[in-house]
Protein backbone atom coordinates (compact mmCIF):
# COMPACT_ATOMS: atom_id res chain seq x y z
CA UNK A 1 0.00 0.00 0.00
CA UNK A 2 2.80 2.44 0.88
CA UNK A 3 4.66 1.71 -2.33
CA UNK A 4 1.55 2.40 -4.36
CA UNK A 5 0.78 5.52 -2.38
CA UNK A 6 4.22 6.88 -3.14
CA UNK A 7 3.34 6.97 -6.82
CA UNK A 8 0.07 8.85 -6.30
CA UNK A 9 0.06 12.50 -7.31
CA UNK A 10 -0.70 15.51 -5.19
CA UNK A 11 -4.43 16.06 -4.72
CA UNK A 12 -6.57 17.75 -2.14
CA UNK A 13 -7.38 14.40 -0.55
CA UNK A 14 -4.07 12.61 -0.93
CA UNK A 15 -0.80 14.33 -0.16
CA UNK A 16 2.53 12.56 0.07
CA UNK A 17 5.63 14.40 1.38
CA UNK A 18 7.88 15.00 -1.60
CA UNK A 19 10.87 13.19 -0.11
CA UNK A 20 8.67 10.09 0.25
CA UNK A 21 9.14 9.63 -3.49
CA UNK A 22 12.10 7.27 -3.21
CA UNK A 23 13.98 8.12 -6.40
CA UNK A 24 13.56 11.88 -6.01
CA UNK A 25 14.73 11.57 -2.41
CA UNK A 26 17.85 9.72 -3.55
CA UNK A 27 18.64 12.39 -6.13
CA UNK A 28 17.88 15.28 -3.78
CA UNK A 29 19.92 14.03 -0.83
CA UNK A 30 22.84 13.03 -3.04
CA UNK A 31 22.98 16.50 -4.56
CA UNK A 32 22.67 18.09 -1.11
CA UNK A 33 25.87 16.26 -0.19
CA UNK A 34 27.49 17.13 -3.52
CA UNK A 35 26.66 20.83 -3.29
CA UNK A 36 27.90 21.00 0.29
CA UNK A 37 31.19 19.45 -0.80
CA UNK A 38 31.48 21.88 -3.71
CA UNK A 39 30.75 24.89 -1.50
CA UNK A 40 33.45 23.73 0.91
CA UNK A 41 36.11 23.26 -1.79
CA UNK A 42 35.29 26.55 -3.54
CA UNK A 43 36.67 28.42 -0.52
CA UNK A 44 39.64 26.07 -0.23
CA UNK A 45 40.89 26.50 -3.81
CA UNK A 46 42.15 30.10 -3.47
CA UNK A 47 43.59 29.30 -0.03
CA UNK A 48 45.49 26.38 -1.54
CA UNK A 49 46.85 28.52 -4.38
CA UNK A 50 48.10 31.10 -1.89
CA UNK A 51 49.71 28.39 0.24
CA UNK A 52 51.86 27.15 -2.66
CA UNK A 53 53.29 30.61 -3.29
CA UNK A 54 50.66 31.77 -5.71
CA UNK A 55 49.63 35.40 -5.92
CA UNK A 56 46.24 36.88 -5.11
CA UNK A 57 45.67 37.28 -8.85
CA UNK A 58 46.36 33.58 -9.39
CA UNK A 59 44.04 32.71 -6.50
CA UNK A 60 41.25 34.73 -8.09
CA UNK A 61 42.03 33.29 -11.52
CA UNK A 62 40.91 29.82 -10.39
CA UNK A 63 37.32 31.01 -10.06
CA UNK A 64 37.54 33.03 -13.26
CA UNK A 65 38.74 30.03 -15.26
CA UNK A 66 35.89 27.93 -13.90
CA UNK A 67 33.32 30.63 -14.72
CA UNK A 68 34.62 30.97 -18.30
CA UNK A 69 34.50 27.20 -18.81
CA UNK A 70 30.92 27.03 -17.55
CA UNK A 71 29.82 29.85 -19.86
CA UNK A 72 31.56 28.45 -22.95
CA UNK A 73 30.33 24.88 -22.45
CA UNK A 74 26.77 25.63 -21.27
CA UNK A 75 25.12 25.18 -24.69
CA UNK A 76 27.13 22.09 -25.74
CA UNK A 77 26.38 20.55 -22.33
CA UNK A 78 22.65 20.96 -22.90
CA UNK A 79 22.91 19.38 -26.34
CA UNK A 80 24.89 16.42 -24.96
CA UNK A 81 22.30 15.98 -22.21
CA UNK A 82 19.64 15.48 -24.88
CA UNK A 83 21.89 13.26 -26.99
CA UNK A 84 23.30 10.92 -24.31
CA UNK A 85 21.79 8.77 -21.59
CA UNK A 86 21.27 11.09 -18.59
CA UNK A 87 22.01 8.46 -15.98
CA UNK A 88 25.27 7.43 -17.65
CA UNK A 89 26.27 11.06 -18.11
CA UNK A 90 25.64 11.90 -14.45
CA UNK A 91 27.46 8.78 -13.23
CA UNK A 92 30.42 9.55 -15.48
CA UNK A 93 30.63 13.10 -14.16
CA UNK A 94 30.49 11.91 -10.54
CA UNK A 95 33.13 9.25 -11.13
CA UNK A 96 35.37 11.77 -12.84
CA UNK A 97 34.99 14.38 -10.10
CA UNK A 98 35.63 11.79 -7.39
CA UNK A 99 38.88 10.78 -9.12
CA UNK A 100 39.94 14.42 -9.64
CA UNK A 101 39.53 15.44 -6.01
CA UNK A 102 41.12 12.26 -4.68
CA UNK A 103 44.08 13.00 -6.96
CA UNK A 104 44.32 16.55 -5.62
CA UNK A 105 44.03 15.39 -2.01
CA UNK A 106 46.75 12.77 -2.46
CA UNK A 107 49.00 15.32 -4.20
CA UNK A 108 48.64 17.67 -1.24
CA UNK A 109 49.29 14.93 1.31
CA UNK A 110 52.40 13.72 -0.51
CA UNK A 111 53.78 17.21 -1.19
CA UNK A 112 53.43 17.00 -4.98
CA UNK A 113 50.79 19.69 -5.43
CA UNK A 114 51.59 22.49 -7.91
CA UNK A 115 49.81 25.46 -9.46
CA UNK A 116 49.43 23.78 -12.88
CA UNK A 117 47.87 20.74 -11.19
CA UNK A 118 45.43 22.90 -9.21
CA UNK A 119 44.35 24.78 -12.33
CA UNK A 120 44.03 21.56 -14.34
CA UNK A 121 41.88 19.85 -11.71
CA UNK A 122 39.68 22.87 -11.08
CA UNK A 123 39.16 23.33 -14.82
CA UNK A 124 38.36 19.65 -15.42
CA UNK A 125 35.94 19.69 -12.48
CA UNK A 126 34.19 22.73 -13.98
CA UNK A 127 33.74 20.84 -17.27
CA UNK A 128 32.11 17.94 -15.44
CA UNK A 129 29.99 20.34 -13.36
CA UNK A 130 28.51 21.98 -16.42
CA UNK A 131 27.79 18.60 -18.03
CA UNK A 132 26.08 17.31 -14.90
CA UNK A 133 23.82 20.34 -14.31
CA UNK A 134 21.38 20.15 -17.26
CA UNK A 135 21.10 16.37 -16.92
CA UNK A 136 20.14 16.58 -13.24
CA UNK A 137 17.68 19.42 -13.87
CA UNK A 138 16.02 17.62 -16.78
CA UNK A 139 15.74 14.38 -14.77
CA UNK A 140 13.52 15.93 -12.08
CA UNK A 141 10.34 15.70 -14.15
CA UNK A 142 10.81 11.93 -14.44
CA UNK A 143 10.89 11.36 -10.68
CA UNK A 144 7.82 13.20 -9.34
CA UNK A 145 4.24 13.71 -10.60
CA UNK A 146 3.79 16.55 -13.08
CA UNK A 147 1.79 18.69 -10.66
CA UNK A 148 4.62 18.57 -8.11
CA UNK A 149 7.57 19.39 -10.35
CA UNK A 150 7.65 23.06 -9.31
CA UNK A 151 7.61 21.99 -5.68
CA UNK A 152 10.57 19.71 -6.39
CA UNK A 153 12.52 22.63 -7.83
CA UNK A 154 11.61 24.68 -4.77
CA UNK A 155 13.24 21.96 -2.68
CA UNK A 156 16.31 22.23 -4.88
CA UNK A 157 16.44 25.98 -4.29
CA UNK A 158 16.41 25.44 -0.52
CA UNK A 159 19.15 22.85 -0.88
CA UNK A 160 21.35 25.23 -2.85
CA UNK A 161 20.95 28.13 -0.44
CA UNK A 162 21.62 25.89 2.56
CA UNK A 163 24.80 24.54 0.96
CA UNK A 164 26.00 28.04 0.07
CA UNK A 165 25.50 29.11 3.69
CA UNK A 166 27.08 26.10 5.40
CA UNK A 167 29.72 25.19 2.82
CA UNK A 168 32.24 28.04 3.19
CA UNK A 169 32.34 27.70 6.98
CA UNK A 170 32.78 23.96 6.67
CA UNK A 171 35.48 24.47 4.06
CA UNK A 172 37.35 26.88 6.32
CA UNK A 173 37.17 24.45 9.22
CA UNK A 174 38.32 21.49 7.14
CA UNK A 175 41.19 23.51 5.67
CA UNK A 176 42.33 24.36 9.20
CA UNK A 177 42.39 20.62 9.93
CA UNK A 178 44.52 19.94 6.86
CA UNK A 179 44.94 21.42 3.38
CA UNK A 180 43.74 18.20 1.75
CA UNK A 181 40.64 17.80 3.93
CA UNK A 182 38.15 20.00 1.97
CA UNK A 183 39.06 18.31 -1.32
CA UNK A 184 38.84 14.79 0.09
CA UNK A 185 35.46 15.72 1.59
CA UNK A 186 34.34 16.92 -1.84
CA UNK A 187 35.53 13.63 -3.37
CA UNK A 188 33.47 11.76 -0.77
CA UNK A 189 30.40 13.86 -1.61
CA UNK A 190 30.69 12.90 -5.31
CA UNK A 191 31.06 9.25 -4.35
CA UNK A 192 27.83 9.52 -2.32
CA UNK A 193 26.15 11.07 -5.37
CA UNK A 194 27.44 8.26 -7.63
CA UNK A 195 26.10 5.54 -5.34
CA UNK A 196 22.73 7.26 -4.91
CA UNK A 197 22.17 7.80 -8.64
CA UNK A 198 23.06 4.16 -9.25
CA UNK A 199 20.26 3.20 -6.83
CA UNK A 200 17.58 5.23 -8.65
CA UNK A 201 15.13 2.80 -10.25
CA UNK A 202 13.12 5.00 -12.58
CA UNK A 203 14.45 6.00 -16.01
CA UNK A 204 15.73 9.58 -16.04
CA UNK A 205 14.49 10.31 -19.56
CA UNK A 206 12.03 9.18 -22.19
CA UNK A 207 13.20 6.72 -24.81
CA UNK A 208 15.53 8.32 -27.35
CA UNK A 209 15.40 8.13 -31.12
CA UNK A 210 18.64 7.76 -33.04
CA UNK A 211 20.35 11.15 -33.35
CA UNK A 212 23.51 9.90 -35.04
CA UNK A 213 22.83 11.89 -38.21
CA UNK A 214 22.61 15.24 -36.44
CA UNK A 215 25.66 17.27 -35.50
CA UNK A 216 26.21 18.89 -32.12
CA UNK A 217 25.96 22.30 -33.78
CA UNK A 218 22.58 21.47 -35.32
CA UNK A 219 21.37 20.17 -31.95
CA UNK A 220 22.38 23.45 -30.29
CA UNK A 221 20.71 25.39 -33.08
CA UNK A 222 17.49 23.43 -32.53
CA UNK A 223 17.49 24.42 -28.85
CA UNK A 224 18.12 28.08 -29.70
CA UNK A 225 15.32 27.99 -32.28
CA UNK A 226 12.88 26.52 -29.76
CA UNK A 227 13.62 29.25 -27.20
CA UNK A 228 13.52 32.00 -29.85
CA UNK A 229 10.13 30.73 -31.02
CA UNK A 230 8.58 30.76 -27.53
CA UNK A 231 7.08 34.14 -26.52
CA UNK A 232 7.10 32.98 -22.89
CA UNK A 233 10.79 32.04 -22.82
CA UNK A 234 11.79 35.21 -24.68
CA UNK A 235 9.90 37.25 -22.11
CA UNK A 236 11.51 35.37 -19.21
CA UNK A 237 14.97 36.08 -20.61
CA UNK A 238 14.19 39.79 -21.08
CA UNK A 239 13.03 39.97 -17.45
CA UNK A 240 15.70 37.75 -15.92
CA UNK A 241 18.82 39.18 -17.60
CA UNK A 242 18.77 42.67 -16.06
CA UNK A 243 17.36 41.57 -12.71
CA UNK A 244 20.05 38.89 -12.29
CA UNK A 245 22.66 41.53 -13.08
CA UNK A 246 21.06 43.85 -10.52
CA UNK A 247 20.98 41.22 -7.76
CA UNK A 248 24.58 40.10 -8.30
CA UNK A 249 25.83 43.65 -8.60
CA UNK A 250 23.90 44.80 -5.52
CA UNK A 251 25.28 42.01 -3.34
CA UNK A 252 28.83 42.80 -4.45
CA UNK A 253 28.28 46.55 -4.11
CA UNK A 254 27.00 46.21 -0.53
CA UNK A 255 30.15 44.40 0.57
CA UNK A 256 32.47 46.84 -1.19
CA UNK A 257 30.54 49.82 0.12
CA UNK A 258 30.66 48.61 3.72
CA UNK A 259 34.36 47.90 3.36
CA UNK A 260 34.99 51.43 2.03
CA UNK A 261 33.15 52.75 5.06
CA UNK A 262 35.59 50.92 7.38
CA UNK A 263 33.29 48.19 8.65
CA UNK A 264 35.35 45.33 10.15
CA UNK A 265 35.69 41.98 8.32
CA UNK A 266 33.38 40.11 10.69
CA UNK A 267 30.57 42.54 9.84
CA UNK A 268 31.26 42.08 6.12
CA UNK A 269 30.86 38.34 6.60
CA UNK A 270 27.72 38.92 8.65
CA UNK A 271 26.30 41.08 5.85
CA UNK A 272 26.80 38.30 3.30
CA UNK A 273 25.22 35.80 5.68
CA UNK A 274 22.18 38.01 6.31
CA UNK A 275 21.63 38.44 2.57
CA UNK A 276 21.88 34.69 2.00
CA UNK A 277 19.39 34.00 4.79
CA UNK A 278 16.76 35.95 2.84
CA UNK A 279 17.20 33.57 -0.08
CA UNK A 280 17.17 30.51 2.17
CA UNK A 281 13.92 31.55 3.90
CA UNK A 282 12.41 32.27 0.50
CA UNK A 283 13.48 28.86 -0.77
CA UNK A 284 11.91 27.13 2.23
CA UNK A 285 8.67 29.03 1.56
CA UNK A 286 8.80 28.73 -2.24
CA UNK A 287 6.39 25.81 -2.64
CA UNK A 288 3.80 27.53 -0.43
CA UNK A 289 4.23 30.83 -2.30
CA UNK A 290 3.88 29.22 -5.74
CA UNK A 291 0.49 27.76 -4.90
CA UNK A 292 -0.94 31.19 -4.17
CA UNK A 293 -0.22 33.11 -7.36
CA UNK A 294 0.18 32.58 -11.09
CA UNK A 295 3.68 32.74 -12.51
CA UNK A 296 3.20 36.20 -14.04
CA UNK A 297 1.61 37.63 -10.87
CA UNK A 298 4.42 36.22 -8.76
CA UNK A 299 7.04 37.57 -11.17
CA UNK A 300 5.55 41.07 -11.22
CA UNK A 301 5.23 41.17 -7.42
CA UNK A 302 8.80 39.93 -6.93
CA UNK A 303 10.39 42.38 -9.38
CA UNK A 304 8.26 45.28 -8.10
CA UNK A 305 9.25 44.52 -4.51
CA UNK A 306 12.91 44.23 -5.45
CA UNK A 307 12.75 47.54 -7.33
CA UNK A 308 11.32 49.34 -4.28
CA UNK A 309 13.69 47.64 -1.84
CA UNK A 310 16.77 48.44 -3.91
CA UNK A 311 15.74 52.10 -3.87
CA UNK A 312 15.64 51.92 -0.07
CA UNK A 313 19.02 50.17 -0.02
CA UNK A 314 20.48 52.85 -2.30
CA UNK A 315 19.19 55.59 0.03
CA UNK A 316 20.96 53.81 2.91
CA UNK A 317 24.26 53.55 1.02
CA UNK A 318 27.19 53.48 3.43
CA UNK A 319 25.09 52.34 6.39
CA UNK A 320 25.01 48.71 7.50
CA UNK A 321 21.21 48.83 7.31
CA UNK A 322 21.46 48.82 3.49
CA UNK A 323 21.85 45.04 3.83
CA UNK A 324 18.31 44.41 5.06
CA UNK A 325 16.25 45.67 2.07
CA UNK A 326 18.37 43.49 -0.22
CA UNK A 327 17.73 40.52 2.07
CA UNK A 328 13.97 41.07 1.76
CA UNK A 329 14.34 41.51 -2.00
CA UNK A 330 15.88 38.06 -2.32
CA UNK A 331 12.98 36.39 -0.49
CA UNK A 332 10.80 35.80 -3.57
CA UNK A 333 13.64 34.91 -5.97
CA UNK A 334 13.68 31.16 -5.16
CA UNK A 335 9.94 30.84 -5.80
CA UNK A 336 10.38 32.48 -9.21
CA UNK A 337 13.27 30.17 -10.11
CA UNK A 338 11.38 27.08 -8.97
CA UNK A 339 8.23 28.08 -10.86
CA UNK A 340 10.24 28.79 -14.02
CA UNK A 341 12.11 25.49 -14.02
CA UNK A 342 8.94 23.67 -13.09
CA UNK A 343 7.21 25.16 -16.12
CA UNK A 344 10.18 24.32 -18.37
CA UNK A 345 10.14 20.72 -17.13
CA UNK A 346 6.41 20.25 -17.64
CA UNK A 347 5.95 22.04 -20.98
CA UNK A 348 9.20 21.36 -22.87
CA UNK A 349 9.48 18.09 -24.84
CA UNK A 350 11.77 15.71 -22.97
CA UNK A 351 14.22 15.35 -25.87
CA UNK A 352 14.76 19.15 -25.86
CA UNK A 353 14.92 19.85 -22.13
CA UNK A 354 18.71 19.86 -21.77
CA UNK A 355 19.16 22.36 -24.58
CA UNK A 356 16.29 24.63 -23.53
CA UNK A 357 17.49 24.69 -19.92
CA UNK A 358 21.02 25.54 -21.04
CA UNK A 359 19.90 28.32 -23.38
CA UNK A 360 17.68 29.93 -20.74
CA UNK A 361 20.31 29.65 -17.98
CA UNK A 362 23.09 31.04 -20.15
CA UNK A 363 20.96 33.87 -21.54
CA UNK A 364 19.69 34.87 -18.10
CA UNK A 365 23.05 34.75 -16.31
CA UNK A 366 25.81 35.64 -18.77
CA UNK A 367 25.42 39.39 -18.20
CA UNK A 368 25.28 38.83 -14.44
CA UNK A 369 28.76 37.28 -14.60
CA UNK A 370 30.11 40.75 -15.39
CA UNK A 371 28.34 42.31 -12.39
CA UNK A 372 31.23 42.15 -9.86
CA UNK A 373 33.57 43.86 -12.31
CA UNK A 374 30.93 46.44 -13.27
CA UNK A 375 30.11 47.19 -9.63
CA UNK A 376 33.78 47.61 -8.79
CA UNK A 377 34.29 50.02 -11.68
CA UNK A 378 31.21 52.10 -10.79
CA UNK A 379 32.24 52.32 -7.13
CA UNK A 380 35.82 53.23 -8.02
CA UNK A 381 34.92 55.85 -10.64
CA UNK A 382 31.54 57.24 -9.54
CA UNK A 383 30.98 56.05 -5.97
CA UNK A 384 28.78 53.56 -4.17
CA UNK A 385 25.55 55.50 -4.66
CA UNK A 386 26.02 55.37 -8.45
CA UNK A 387 26.60 51.61 -8.34
CA UNK A 388 23.36 51.08 -6.40
CA UNK A 389 21.52 53.42 -8.78
CA UNK A 390 22.57 51.21 -11.70
CA UNK A 391 21.10 48.22 -9.83
CA UNK A 392 17.82 50.09 -9.40
CA UNK A 393 17.77 51.05 -13.09
CA UNK A 394 18.41 47.45 -14.21
CA UNK A 395 15.57 46.21 -11.98
CA UNK A 396 13.30 48.91 -13.38
CA UNK A 397 14.03 47.61 -16.87
CA UNK A 398 13.03 44.11 -15.76
CA UNK A 399 9.83 45.45 -14.22
CA UNK A 400 8.84 47.19 -17.45
CA UNK A 401 9.43 43.94 -19.35
CA UNK A 402 7.39 41.93 -16.83
CA UNK A 403 4.47 44.35 -17.14
CA UNK A 404 4.51 44.81 -20.90
CA UNK A 405 5.73 41.68 -22.67
CA UNK A 406 2.90 39.67 -24.19
CA UNK A 407 4.62 36.33 -23.65
CA UNK A 408 3.74 36.53 -19.96
CA UNK A 409 0.10 37.48 -20.59
CA UNK A 410 -0.97 34.99 -23.27
CA UNK A 411 -4.19 32.99 -22.79
CA UNK A 412 -2.19 29.76 -23.20
CA UNK A 413 0.07 30.68 -20.29
CA UNK A 414 -2.93 31.56 -18.10
CA UNK A 415 -4.52 28.20 -18.96
CA UNK A 416 -1.30 26.36 -18.09
CA UNK A 417 -1.18 28.16 -14.73
CA UNK A 418 -4.71 26.97 -14.05
CA UNK A 419 -3.93 23.35 -14.94
CA UNK A 420 -0.60 23.21 -13.06
CA UNK A 421 -2.10 24.83 -10.01
CA UNK A 422 -4.98 22.38 -9.63
Automatic annotation (TrEMBL):
<dbReference type="InterPro" id="IPR036259">
    <property type="entry name" value="MFS_trans_sf"/>
</dbReference>
<dbReference type="InterPro" id="IPR020846">
    <property type="entry name" value="MFS_dom"/>
</dbReference>
<keyword id="KW-1003">Cell membrane</keyword>
<dbReference type="Pfam" id="PF07690">
    <property type="entry name" value="MFS_1"/>
</dbReference>
<feature type="domain" description="Major facilitator superfamily (MFS) profile">
    <location>
        <begin position="9"/>
        <end position="410"/>
    </location>
</feature>
<feature type="transmembrane region" description="Helical">
    <location>
        <begin position="266"/>
        <end position="289"/>
    </location>
</feature>
<protein>
    <submittedName>
        <fullName>Multidrug-efflux transporter</fullName>
    </submittedName>
</protein>
<feature type="transmembrane region" description="Helical">
    <location>
        <begin position="356"/>
        <end position="379"/>
    </location>
</feature>
<feature type="transmembrane region" description="Helical">
    <location>
        <begin position="99"/>
        <end position="128"/>
    </location>
</feature>
<dbReference type="InterPro" id="IPR011701">
    <property type="entry name" value="MFS"/>
</dbReference>
<keyword id="KW-0812">Transmembrane</keyword>
<feature type="transmembrane region" description="Helical">
    <location>
        <begin position="298"/>
        <end position="316"/>
    </location>
</feature>
<feature type="transmembrane region" description="Helical">
    <location>
        <begin position="322"/>
        <end position="344"/>
    </location>
</feature>
<keyword id="KW-0472">Membrane</keyword>
<feature type="transmembrane region" description="Helical">
    <location>
        <begin position="180"/>
        <end position="200"/>
    </location>
</feature>
<feature type="transmembrane region" description="Helical">
    <location>
        <begin position="385"/>
        <end position="408"/>
    </location>
</feature>
<keyword id="KW-1133">Transmembrane helix</keyword>
<feature type="transmembrane region" description="Helical">
    <location>
        <begin position="232"/>
        <end position="254"/>
    </location>
</feature>
Amino acid sequence: MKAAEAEVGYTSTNWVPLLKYRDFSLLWTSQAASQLGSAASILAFPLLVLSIHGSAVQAGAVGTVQAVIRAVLQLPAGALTDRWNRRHLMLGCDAGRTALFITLGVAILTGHVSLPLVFAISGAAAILDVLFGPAETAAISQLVPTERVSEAFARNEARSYAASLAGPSLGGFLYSVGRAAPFLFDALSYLVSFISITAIRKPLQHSRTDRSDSSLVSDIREGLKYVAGSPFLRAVIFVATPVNFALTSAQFSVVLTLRENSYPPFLLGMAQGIIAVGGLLGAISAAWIQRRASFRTLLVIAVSALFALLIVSALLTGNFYMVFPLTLGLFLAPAINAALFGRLATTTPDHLQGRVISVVVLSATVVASTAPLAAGLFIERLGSAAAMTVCVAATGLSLISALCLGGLRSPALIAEDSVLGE
